[in-house]
């Protein structure tokens, strides 16, 4: 009987020890399911690649987090976070006061200007007066949609799209007069064969920090303060050790961390 009890006790201790070293649950990193180059896009094999993927991988590695990229429809990405389908949003989401009513954010990890593009054969600028009477395309549930509705009140229509690519396609097809979005994302479109053929940059919109926010951060649930602290520590570490710059130089020839106003 003593032998049986001793064997049971050893097994129990081993089980407790195994639980102590059990692998932590993976951290599900939510990204918009649509391609958003050069930040997040699936490659030919379906693997997600891009600057933001490399960035969050580096943060997770620094903080020893087991992170898994989890694509989610953009207009449902905040509900996916609050209902725990994902744990972090790393999808070029701008930090805004409106969003902070529902979720929290890490420190800023990049910030780039907001641009207007339009047909090459039309000359106009990015100011509200330039867009009077025009149909302006924006992606739904973005700071650009909010900005356009606030500032371009004399536009013929502010047309919202589920994806940025759909807005770009309608601009190329002549169904829009202009598109507003992050300057880097629009720059990638203008470099494409389709973008080169149809469109050009009209300029950067005027700043509005209340709408556009101070930059892009990682979205987290308000109660997940430990995770937020780890992400912030990871951002700080890769900024300090050169990894952030190493990643950025693969994609950009300027400092993506700075910049006046910004993204989604």
Summarize the structure.
With 264 residues, the protein is of the alpha/beta class. The protein has helices at residues 2-20, 51-62, 77-82, 143-151, 164-172, 183-191, 193-198, 209-212, 225-240, 243-249; strands at 27-32, 41-42, 48-49, 67-72, 88-89, 104-105, 114-119, 135-139, 157-161, 178-182, 199-204, 219-220. Strands 4-1-5-12-6 form a five-stranded mixed beta sheet. Strands 9-8-10-7-11 form a five-stranded mixed beta sheet, sandwiched between helices. The chain has a two-stranded antiparallel ribbon with strand order 2-3.
Name some characteristics of this structure.
single chain, 264 residues, alpha/beta, D-Maltodextrin-Binding Protein, domain 2, 2 domains, five-stranded mixed β-sheet, 37% helix, globular, disordered N terminus, disordered C terminus
